[in-house]
């Protein structure tokens, strides 16, 4: 492709609203342009990179038995009503009406559509198992679009859905997709981890997120320093034994703590360690008040609280609700002398506290020498806190460390959540009606491209892995007005294309410095520069990743490029 007429506008300055490297570099290198907040156009370089990632996905999905389909972006709202998700999904779901007043949604995900499609066309066990996937634009009305295409309102996604006749069949489908994802992200040359995760609004169990390690990641990964264990901190379980001390139980004592609300303030004011305090948070669970207790040096994990109540509607009480229910300000809430309407659950660490400190349910007062079960009742003790760095790994090997990650893929075992709601059944070998068992598997294609840039760049621009680079080679004629350079550049452009290389040919009448800066910014794996030695039949070859530059006779160029690409692909 000739760069003279190619739509690849580069920018010298970093755009003011671009916070992270992938956003900055994709804008500066001419891969994307913003159309509206969270909505982007992909220019030719960006589209070619997307297609490279899509083809890797297609190859691995097809190898794993997937069949590609394409479903509509506009979906009837009645399907979401039928599944029960129309009200549950929240304001991220984009909704619209047609000219007849019928309600539709823009597809944020396609469980409803695919389930009804299979329901209507697959009736026998003989057609199962089946795995259908698509690569398509999705829509989510993000409250705060940011980080370019990493968190946008319109994005490209691969979503796949498996249909099986048994749990064992679902396990096999899940494993096949898990392995396919490992291959996909490895081929994209990403440093990633598959971590245990929460299924969120999709539903289901046994789910893993595929996280690309990055400082700008919005998710925290808890991993063992001595094993393969990794999990999102939202669901990472705590495997600890808490030892209760043998000290004598003290008498309850109410103490004045003027304007002392936080755990750190309480610890400093009363000269105690935070692990001797009890943190109390009031939640509203299906419209009923629940007080959740954790040790003062721990943090309540709302996902675990939801799971403790089978994912009921769980929300942190507002200060107004706390005042109405407990007649107390937040900061002084505690589990002693609660109204009978308030249920108490506690993290397992709280059970081992002896002579602790908690809020007195009275402004500017706390209670000393508090002991669970003696001084207040707990409905049950459960794992309700976030895991922390330094905790023992749940796998029993090593300790927990943290890393930040960008989620690029997610696999779920849905079970019968959607097939039951939407009536997706089949006839088994005995002619009996059975419900299909489903799995769901997503990859953020546009997010994957941005994640690649986050991991593959330097101070000069993007450094594309060979597997996803928009072109293999950047051929640069330094001075197109020089006859020898121009003739050799044209000759190489045609011959390299015939040798099956994808070539971006910089034939622009620009200065050498501009061309080289643009070349580094765009980041193709290898640059071939036709310069002053063109008359001698010698070109300069630069490897973008290493910065290595060598002079190569034109007669040896093909062999040299073949060797370099073999080295880069390892």
Automatic annotation (TrEMBL):
Assigned GO CC terms: cytosol
Any one Gene Ontology molecular-function term assigned to this protein's record: catalytic activity, acting on a protein
Comment field on protein domains: Consists of three domains: the N-terminal catalytic domain, the editing domain and the C-terminal anticodon-binding domain.
GO BP terms, alphabetized: prolyl-tRNA aminoacylation
Taxonomy of the source species: Bacteria, Bacillati, Bacillota, Bacilli, Bacillales
Chain's gene name: proS
Function field: Catalyzes the attachment of proline to tRNA(Pro) in a two-step reaction: proline is first activated by ATP to form Pro-AMP and then transferred to the acceptor end of tRNA(Pro). As ProRS can inadvertently accommodate and process non-cognate amino acids such as alanine and cysteine, to avoid such errors it has two additional distinct editing activities against alanine. One activity is designated as 'pretransfer' editing and involves the tRNA(Pro)-independent hydrolysis of activated Ala-AMP.
Coiled coil, from the record: none
Name of this chain's protein: Proline--tRNA ligase
A family per Pfam: tRNA-synt_2b
Keyword Disulfide bond: no
